[in-house]
Amino acid sequence: MSKLPHIGTSIFTVMSKMATDYQAINLSQGFPNFPIDVRMTEILARLAKTDIHQYAPMAGYPPLLEKIAQLTLDHYQRKVNPSTEILITAGATEAIFASIQAFVQPQDEVIILDPSYDCYEMPIILSNAKPIRIALKEDYSPNFEAISQHLSTKTRMLILNNPHNPSGKIWTENDFIQLEKIIENYPDLLILSDEVYEFITFENKHISINTREKLKDRSLIVSSFGKTLHLTGWKIGYLIAPENLLEEVKKVHQYLVFSVNSLAQASINEYLTVFDVNEVAQLYSEKRNFFKHLLKETAFDLLPCEGTYFQTASYQSISDEKDVDFTKRLVTEFGVSTIPLSVFYGDQTDLNRIRFCFAKNDELLLQAAERLLKIK
């Protein structure tokens, strides 16, 4: 008997396969299609010839832990202990899975804010706990009234995703103030903050849980080198949390993967000496603006994109089809693969919106725009 009977093939796999089958332009799955920095490939090639191929320490390659501590201090003015408060993980997904498995007990409740990334719910169910799906507002800002109504002594964890996938929304100072206020009466509630797009924000600066004095001691903060350094296939993430929380996560991590790819960790460590993460926002800001300009004459209504490398769009002026049907028709009739937003909701809320990934080279974005201009 299946433990996850309702889990099928993910929409990302479905749409990417359709893109291949119909030779469509793939703006669905969230990964860059341009080469990584040549400096990284040179570092990787050189280190591959050294003695770096055995198990790394369980918590991570010590020099890389030191780099992350410095990065956190530089960007968030938070001093973390690299030996006890940082864990290198097999991608952000493992950090999320291990954190939930470490703390969520049977019958606990975990709040997920929809639309949400699809990896949150499964580890909650495997813990015999209850996911509580609460919709964000239509502009993707948090609905604190609804969150407050669902908070109780059963609430073990609240999962945040900021900057938000799929919408590109980022939390404001006032959002955090409200959050701090409504959870102060629930001292056992933990926050799992998915911040994998933290360095991909534009006009407004990302506010990290790392900067919130009232929250950071009860929070597990997830980051991703895959997203920041355009290395999604390397699956290298990290987790920052107080020592008492991280010790529990390590108990899961050591039996889940034990340690993470040693060559990748060593290569990232050296690359961070020559790469400025501030370059990431500039790169994707230019791509966002370029893609937005290309779609200006289409029938799509583009929603604000404050962060991430995703552009959400409404197609209400084009069709009243369900979004899953519309995205499949985009592939078969127009040769562009996107993601429907209803799949990010527990109840499949359909607002006639889709998500484009603009982390692609200019040539591909131009080709996609030419096809999208034909849609009326």
From TrEMBL:
It holds the Pfam family Aminotran_1_2. One of its GO terms (molecular function) is pyridoxal phosphate binding. The keyword Transferase applies. Keywords: Aminotransferase, Pyridoxal phosphate, Transferase. InterPro entries: Aminotransferase_I/II_large (IPR004839), Kynurenine-oxoglutarate_AT (IPR051326), PyrdxlP-dep_Trfase (IPR015424), PyrdxlP-dep_Trfase_major (IPR015421), PyrdxlP-dep_Trfase_small (IPR015422). CDD domains: AAT_like. Residues 24-372 form the Aminotransferase class I/classII large domain. Gene3D superfamilies: Aspartate Aminotransferase, domain 1, Type I PLP-dependent aspartate aminotransferase-like (Major domain). This is Methionine aminotransferase. The lineage of its organism: Bacteria, Pseudomonadati, Bacteroidota, Flavobacteriia, Flavobacteriales.
